[in-house]
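Please decode residue identities from the backbone states below.
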């Protein structure tokens, strides 16, 4: 989650998406539902085998998070989805973690960092994983959710604002394919020391929080972090549109708007505007996200891979 703030006039902004907080619903335990894969993952990670005990634990963490920031993904348990592992590029990501020396994975706008925890469980070295969010409380609640401590989980939890140049400045993408030496991620105070050094950037549900201009800004910022070694990848899962523009959605009776790219405009943004034409491969795929009983959202799975 990035660029989140509460305003005095009972409005909340999540990126460039504005909600009237007076209209937001309270937490609703009836929306809690884990797939068999989710249940198996969270039971293994937390050590809680009983379904009701696990539900109680997750609801307790959800209640704390919703008080910090009443986001739709917290209310509807969207943060529990294993989104990264469902992307077509996931096996490639795990292969980079296994085979590329010192490969680093950045989970940006991560909320509790569930995707990066799943990647660690599936073999990407946890010591080379950074989970970053502007809401530091979410990162602390990640330890509570997974029943870990900074001592027991070696991954780096790094709070920061992706639009703050002191945390993440924009530089031109690197075209130097020489391997970079290892870096101690535990000493990081910002992402800037990692320019040109990150092998995988997971930006799921991140870009669609911002308007068109800011989406280009963050694309350039993340491109500057990506390693030039072939196979390095940025991926995501965001609201999409058949034609780029404003998409109106509804969250439990609260209407909000997001800017969405089409597959064509998204591809041309990365291949030719952010990176030099022909130096990356952009792949997109449509998916339908069902929220609640009958709310369906057109989503775009995507990846940008260095050639």
């Amino acid at each position: 989650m990035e660029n989140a703030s509460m305003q005095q006039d009972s409005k909340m902004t999540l990126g460039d998406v504005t909600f009237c907080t007076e209209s937001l619903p309270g937490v609703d335990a009836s929306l809690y539902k884990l797939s068999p894969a989710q249940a198996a993952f969270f039971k293994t990670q937390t050590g809680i085998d009983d379904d009701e005990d696990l539900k109680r634990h997750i609801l307790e963490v959800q209640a704390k998070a919703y008080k910090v920031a009443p986001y739709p993904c917290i209310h509807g348990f969207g943060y529990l989805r294993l989104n990264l592992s469902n992307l077509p590029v996931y096996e490639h990501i795990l292969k980079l973690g296994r085979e590329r020396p010192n490969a680093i994975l950045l989970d940006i706008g991560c909320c509790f960092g569930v995707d990066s925890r799943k990647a660690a469980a599936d073999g990407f070295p946890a010591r080379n994983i950074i989970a970053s969010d502007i809401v530091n409380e979410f990162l602390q609640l990640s330890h509570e959710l997974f029943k870990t401590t900074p001592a027991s989980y070696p991954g780096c939890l790094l709070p920061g604002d992706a639009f703050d140049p002191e945390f993440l400045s924009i530089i031109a993408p690197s075209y130097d394919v020489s391997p970079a030496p290892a870096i101690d991620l535990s000493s990081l105070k910002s992402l800037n020391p990692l320019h040109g050094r990150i092998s995988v950037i997971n930006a799921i549900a991140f870009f669609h929080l911002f308007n068109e201009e800011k989406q280009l800004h963050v694309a350039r910022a993340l491109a500057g972090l990506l390693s030039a070694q072939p196979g390095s990848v940025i991926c995501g899962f965001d609201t999409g549109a058949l034609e780029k523009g404003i998409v109106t959605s509804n969250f439990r009776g609260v209407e909000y708007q997001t800017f969405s790219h089409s597959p064509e405009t998204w591809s041309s943004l990365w291949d030719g505007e952010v990176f030099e034409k022909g130096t990356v491969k952009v792949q997109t795929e449509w998916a339908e996200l069902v929220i609640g009983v009958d709310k369906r959202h057109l989503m775009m799975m995507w990846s940008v891979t260095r050639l």
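Observation: The longest helix spans residues 51-68.
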